[in-house]
Design a protein that fits this description.
about 450 residues, alpha/beta, 6-stranded mixed beta sheet, 5-stranded mixed beta sheet, 11 helices, about 35% helix
Length: about 450
């Protein structure tokens, strides 16, 4: 009897050891895999139940990146993984060297530069392991200088957030990243349809672009202006209206401004922390920002463009503030590129969330942003641009002249005449100076 009891105790002890050891072998779970494809890079995100312990190595012929997740298991069927990347063929599971390790193989189309980093939970995501893949064959691209001595005015159009970073989330669950991209595309299309102007988009799809890299992309394109398009949010649903922001070297002095600065930090945690974690030389960028004397000129231009854009936004939507506001935001910090951030409305306001998802309202917002930008450059075109070549004609209103009579004389439309001179009515006064657009 005693012998039987001892045998039972040994059996129970063995079971206890197995039960306590099992969680150690699979303490973490791979709960999801997402692939975000950009034109020249791809981000693979592994969603995990806990912080990952990981290692990686590369193989070639064929090209592969192997990622080992210690004490991790999964029930995912990776064969059904959505993938539109030009760099990633597929992600599969392979047999690991160590028991309890989950081995993931990213099969690649070509040689890439890989950057791996872990991210702590940040709403709406939990623990993640992020793998950024960059095409090794891609060289830095700039827009080729035209043969003629005169060039197009370049406007970099930036749709905020994207990919892993949804931005603010409206009451119905609408993501900011989904409403700002179509508005940005509309603005870019209008600029590209304007003789003497060209638009360059920092992102054209649902993927994240690092906040500092957005300015770098604008610089490589030799942009004359960076316009970043967003949708605002706040902790309560009451605030509403569009606003335009320019850079402040100090912390914002309004509650909305402080919220906006905090939201940008949140975006870094969601999508851009890899560069912050890996790059220990960020002081160089800060030093450049503080030391470059062109900052004063860029900020002055930014303020002027922001004022023009606000005038046109006022015609199509409510304004949160009638004058440009200031905040310390990374996307505005390029010292040599005038930059503005347009908040098209409050996605946290139910009424404005519905408007922001409307194609008709998106078109009105895009046209207002475009009109304000074009009006500024028509009046302040750089001397080496095609727009500057156009002779600037000013007309002094005489007795008996109306806006329609003046428009007919110069063969321009009444609406373009009103836009060029920021007129809200058809009324003109004797002696008034009018700028004739496109003359």
């Amino acid at each position: 009897m005693n012998k039987n009891i001892r045998n039972i105790i040994k059996l129970l002890s063995s079971c206890l050891i197995v039960l306590t050891a099992a969680p150690a072998l699979a303490a973490n779970k791979l709960e999801g895999v997402r692939i975000w494809a950009a034109p020249e890079s791809t981000r693979v995100v592994f969603d995990l139940s806990a912080a990952p312990e990981y290692s990686s190595f590369s193989l070639n012929q064929p090209e592969r990146l192997v990622v080992d997740l210690k004490s991790t298991s999964t029930k995912l069927d990776l064969a059904k993984l959505a993938n539109n990347s030009k760099l990633v063929k597929r992600v599969r599971i392979s047999k690991p060297e160590t028991k309890g390790t989950l081995r993931l193989v990213i099969e690649l189309q070509k040689s890439v530069k890989a950057n791996l980093f872990a991210l702590a939970p940040t709403a709406p995501y939990g623990n993640r392991l992020v793998v950024d893949l960059e095409d090794n064959s891609v060289q830095a691209k700039t827009i080729a200088a035209p043969n003629s001595s005169l060039r197009d005015i370049i406007v970099a159009v930036d749709a905020g957030h994207g990919g892993d970073d949804p931005g603010s989330i409206g009451p119905s669950g609408m993501y900011e990243k989904k409403v700002v991209l179509p508005i940005a595309k509309r603005v870019a299309d209008k600029i590209n349809a304007t003789p003497g102007m060209k638009a360059v988009m920092t992102r054209s799809g649902d993927y994240f672009v690092n906040l500092n890299k957005r300015s770098e992309l604008a610089r490589k394109s030799k942009a004359d202006l960076l316009v970043s398009i967003h949708a605002d949010a706040f902790t309560s649903p009451q605030p509403q209206g569009a606003s335009v922001w320019v850079l402040s070297m100090r912390r914002a002095n309004t509650e909305i401004g402080r919220w906006l600065e905090q939201k940008e930090k949140h975006s870094e945690l969601l999508g851009g922390a890899g560069e912050i974690i890996q790059n220990t030389d960020n002081e160089q960028y800060l030093a450049m920002t503080l030391l470059d004397m062109s900052m004063d000129r860029s900020m002055a231009i930014s303020h002027s463009v922001a004022s023009d854009v606000l005038k046109d936004l006022d015609r199509v939507t409510e304004l949160h503030k009638p004058r440009p506001e200031s905040a310390s935001l990374a996307v505005l910090k390029a010292p040599d590129i005038p930059s503005i951030l347009v908040e098209t409305g409050f996605i946290s306001n139910p009424k404005e969330e519905r408007l922001l998802t409307s194609a008709g309202h998106q078109e009105k917002l895009a046209n207002a942003i475009y009109t304000g930008v074009v009006r500024y450059f028509e009046a302040n075109a750089p001397v080496d641009t095609l727009l500057a070549k156009k002779a600037v004609i000013k007309h002094k209103v005489k007795k008996g002249e109306s806006l329609s009579v003046i428009a007919s004389r110069y063969n321009v439309s009444v609406s373009s005449l009103k836009q060029a001179n920021n007129l809200s009515t058809d009324t003109v006064r004797i002696g008034q100076q009018l700028l004739i657009p496109g003359a």
